[in-house]
């Protein structure tokens, strides 16, 4: 359908650490054409990217006709991890929250179908998943220093999430919230949506 109609689909996956973003993306993309689906997971910005307009490094990855682009984390880093962990100022975060609905409106008006998913996990389940990453040598690659530092900031992340949702849940680009304490059920709900 995407190829035949020339649709441009952009899917954003955001959520807490261990909420299942990567696993959900893997389940969506493992049996589809890489000519149609593209996953974007950007590393920390370079010095050059830091000197640019904040969303500029993401825009070059937006879909063209006949493409589905999935962002494994996105421009919303500014409202979440950057805000909570002090990688941006409070004013930069507020400025981002004021501006991003306009960027997303421009995306939608250009013909991009924008789907935004927030994956939510309980504190107890996050603890269990982090501990399993520490104890399982097959999963230690998923564990970063930032995960461990972020772990103690649950309520800061909750406040940042709430502010982000309040400012950016719009008629043209609404957020869809998925409870992923039960990974399989969460994935199936997202896929069927």
Give a brief outline of the structure:
The protein has 193 residues and is of the alpha/beta class. The chain has 10 helices and 5 strands; from the N terminus they run H-E-H-E-H-H-E-H-H-E-H-H-H-E-H.
* Residues in helix, %: 40-55%
Measure the end-to-end span. Answer: 16 Å
Question: What is the number of helices?
Answer: 10
> Strand fraction band?
15-25%
Count of extended strands: 5
Mean pLDDT: 93
Radius of gyration: 17 Å
What low-confidence regions span 5 or more consecutive residues with pLDDT below 50?
Answer: none
- Secondary-structure-based class equals alpha/beta
Shape: globular
Largest sheet: 5 strands, parallel
Biggest sheet, strands in spatial order? 2-3-1-4-5
Sketch the topology as an H/E string, one letter per element: HEHEHHEHHEHHHEH
